[in-house]
Amino acid sequence: MVPAGRFARWVSNFVTAHGATFHSAGPGLEGRAEDGSWFRASLPFGTVYDGPAEVSDFLDAWTAPADWGLLLARRGGYAVARLHGERIVSSKVGQRHVQGRTKAGGQSQQRFARRRDNQARVAWQAAAEHAGTHLAGLRGPLTVGGDHAGVVAVVEMAGLEDLPQHWISDVPGTPRRASLEAAVGDALSLAVEVHNS
Predict the structure, then answer these.
(1) Residue 138: which CATH number?
(2) Would you say residue 194 lies in a domain?
(3) Could you tell me which residue ranges the Actinobacteria/chloroflexi VLRF1 release factor domain spans (predicted)?
(4) Long-range contacts of 73-76 (CB under 8 A, 24+ apart)
(5) How many domains does the chain have?
(6) Average pLDDT of the chain?
(7) Does the structure show a pLDDT above 80 at 105?
(8) What is the span of the domain harbouring residue 182?
(9) What does DSSP assign to residue 160?
């Protein structure tokens, strides 16, 4: 992931390292260097780019959505935010206790598994309540990350399944305020795939 504001410098460094680079466009921006190395950059939120094969035009084609949401969910924690452009206008980060795994066997293991599932369900319900509050009436995209099953459950419980969704990379640990802010940065960054020859 490369923040949009750093991409021009990133491309310049790529050219310095690999030599003259030919650019092509669609559905993102691709660069192929004379040594065989290449990069492929995509705009955030699945935005398709088919303009001129120039870095400046590629960057000018991107603006952050005026109204979009972010939802992170993992067992035991969640973070939800509503954003206007790059600014968080409302958010909530919370935690709920979820039993850890046990090494016990037999009925004890089944009992712990049921308790864990119930606790996770309560955590997802809490996350869905806050998502419903902060993202009510949202029309823009929803960026999501964390435990896949948990995210799907929260999105459905909050009634947000009709929004266009974009997954970000896995959220390490229990979501906290720092995780939320990092996820906002990731959501607004360009996805860049690189192959060095």
Answers:
(1) 3.30.420.60
(2) no
(3) 67-192
(4) 73/124, 73/127, 73/144, 73/146, 73/147, 73/150, 73/151, 73/153, 73/154, 73/175, 74/146, 74/147, 74/150, 74/171, 74/173, 74/174, 74/175, 75/120, 75/123, 75/147, 75/150, 76/120, 76/123, 76/174
(5) 2
(6) 88
(7) no
(8) 68-188
(9) -
pLDDT (0 to 100) of residue 107: 58
Assessment of whether the complete model's pTM goes beyond 0.85: no
Q: How many CA atoms lie within 13 A of 69 on its CB side?
A: 25
In a domain, 197, yes or no: no
**Is 159 among the domain residues?**
yes
> What pLDDT digit, counting tens, does each position of 119-169 carry?
667 888 889 999 999 999 998 999 999 989 889 999 999 999 999 999 987
Q: Which of 63, 93, 114 is the last residue of a domain?
A: 63
Are residues 106 and 54 part of one domain?
A: no
